[in-house]
Amino acid sequence: MANKLDTLLAGLARERSTGALQVGRSGTIFLSDGRVTYMECAQTPSVERLLAARGLMSEAALRRLQADGGCERLLAEGPLTPGELQYAVLGGVLDAAFFLLPAGGARPKFRPGERHWLGGQWFFDVPGLVRECARRRAQLARIWPSADVDTLPVRPLPRLPGHGVTLSRVQWEVIVRADQKATPLELAKQIGRPAYPVLLAVRRLAASGLLAAPDLPQRREHGERAPHDLPQRRKPGGHPPHDPLAPAQPLGPPMTGDPTDLALLMRLKKALEELS
Asked: Which among 4, 33, 52, 93 would be 20 to 30 A from 20, CA to CA?
């Protein structure tokens, strides 16, 4: 379902508008002839930060280029190829769109004619961005249904629940940087990676049972359960599991008394004993 920002962007696209749409303090969307060319979001690392994290150029050097010569000078004198810059802008815009498009509360303000110095490297149609954001939310929900891990501090278990584990590069960076205080979005800025891949990594860690259970607040308003309550089957018309208002899901796979589950556990136990 489209929100007010989606509707406003669709109108600017029909009018082939050029300028910047500021969404309060959440971020800014830049358009050229009705197509999105760049997005800034307060919650996600900027393209400048991502380029600096890769060791290509410092953020200070990028700011100097922005003030003197702009994107043309960056491509002419900097270490970036046009393809590398396009790829960086693509990742940064998709990352910002995921968090900025659902933003509400602030009244957007459009400034005609304003452009971003890194804009024009890639053009995005508004419906395509909305579809990509929906696809990413569905992907997160398939990996781990509770969105609580997206906003709470990342707390890896002090001891592995098994004999070994295989981690991706992003998961490893998250585990190494996790200090029991930083949230996934804060870790993304520290690591210098787009925020969405970090969210994916954290949800996969949660699905693998590698994160400590969060200290969730007691939430009994609107019929929501507390964390220690037994999970209940969702009633028709209730919040889907990936909705921020949905009841929190426990970390780790659910345990039941089903004989099939017990038989599977016994076979796994026997296999692990044979390997050890």
From this structure: 52
Q: Which H or E run includes 110? A: strand 109-112
Tokens of 112: 């005609």
For residue 50, give the amino acid letter: L
Give the span between the Cα atoms of 93 and 100, in whole angstroms: 10
State pLDDT tens for residues 123-153: 898 888 989 999 999 999 999 999 999 999 9
Give the pLDDT of residue 36: 94
Cα separation, 108 vs 78, whole angstroms:
35
Kindly provide the b/e burial profile for residues 27-47, where b requires at least 16 CB atoms within 10 angstroms of the residue's own CB. bbbbbbebbbbbbbbbbbbbb
Distances (CA, A) of 170 to 75, 88, 203: 28, 17, 12
DSSP 47-72: HHHHHHHTTSS-HHHHHHHHHTTHHH
Q: Which of 116, 108, 107 has its CA nearest to residue 36?
A: 116
Indicate the burial class of 203 (C-beta count within 10 angstroms; 0-12, 13-18, 19 or more): buried
**Which strand ranges, in their side-by-side order, compose the sheet holding 109-112?**
35-41, 27-32, 19-23, 109-112
Burial of 236 (0-12, 13-18, 19+ CB in 10 A): exposed
Q: Give the tokens for residue 166.
A: 């295989």
